[in-house]
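Priority: medium. Attachment 1 of 2:
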């Protein structure tokens, strides 16, 4: 896996054979879902199967999305998986307050290793309103992102553009709190690869980095959309080269002005291309 994950593949926790395939699918991170993807009468089995799998380290990072934090299933999920060697992170659904993050971090903390990395999913209007407070709630929190299906229902939004303000709010909150850029929420139609590519391009323009997926066929599209293009790499290399030869503000041969912020962006582009 690259240091900057671009693909996060969700798989249902009650289907161990599907989880096994996901681990060799090429996804940067596999997310075993104990929440929405699992029927109520399968929750206990999903929890036990996931705990059995993650007793050992896995070939790629594995996160577990637990059930809604305000119910008993979430507490059982946390007891079962939070300290296992194969768990690289916990994804917390429908977070609405920083106190929830602090509570989970304290509940799952271990003397030697500390709390496992947490990732908050903001899926309601209240969660969006508290985005920055959630993002800086606790050192164990390593990322925030949107759950757009639930958010769309909560807001009564029909068109996709109606979520852009919420998307920008979460991107800004993550940056302000010193967290990585959020990955995009899933594209629900696994056959619509053209639509996936188009919405990835829009998400990248907004400031997302990478995307969650629900089927392996979506992974190459997301990877391609979020990797720098040949033209972007050439330009980044030209900026870094120019900055290395002269100090201070300057311009490229095409007249583009270069300053420290432009150089930093170029260095990020090169790092992403190199898998760092």
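Attachment 2 of 2:
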């Amino acid at each position: 896996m690259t240091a900057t994950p671009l693909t996060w593949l969700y798989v249902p926790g009650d289907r161990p054979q599907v989880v096994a395939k996901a681990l060799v699918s090429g996804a940067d991170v596999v997310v075993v879902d104990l929440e929405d993807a699992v029927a109520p009468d399968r929750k206990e089995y999903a929890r036990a199967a996931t705990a059995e799998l993650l007793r050992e380290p896995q070939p790629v990072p594995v996160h577990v999305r637990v059930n809604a934090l305000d119910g008993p299933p979430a507490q059982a999920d946390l007891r079962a998986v939070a300290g296992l060697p194969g768990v690289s992170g916990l994804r917390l659904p429908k977070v609405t307050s920083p106190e929830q993050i602090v509570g989970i971090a304290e509940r799952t903390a271990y003397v030697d290793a500390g709390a496992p990395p947490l990732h908050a999913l903001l899926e309601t209007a209240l969660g969006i309103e508290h985005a920055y407070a959630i993002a800086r709630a606790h050192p164990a929190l390593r990322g925030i992102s949107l759950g757009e299906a639930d958010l769309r229902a909560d807001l009564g939004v029909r068109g996709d553009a109606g979520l852009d303000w919420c998307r920008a709010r979460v991107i800004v909150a993550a940056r302000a709190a010193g967290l990585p850029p959020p990955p995009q929420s899933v594209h629900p139609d696994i056959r619509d690869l053209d639509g996936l590519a188009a919405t990835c391009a829009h998400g990248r323009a907004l400031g997302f980095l990478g995307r969650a997926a629900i089927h392996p066929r979506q992974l190459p599209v997301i990877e391609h959309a979020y990797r720098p293009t040949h033209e972007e790499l050439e330009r980044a290399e030209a900026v870094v080269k120019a900055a290395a030869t002269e100090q201070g503000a300057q311009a490229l041969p095409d007249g583009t002005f270069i300053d420290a912020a432009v150089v930093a962006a170029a260095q990020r582009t090169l790092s992403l291309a190199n898998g760092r």
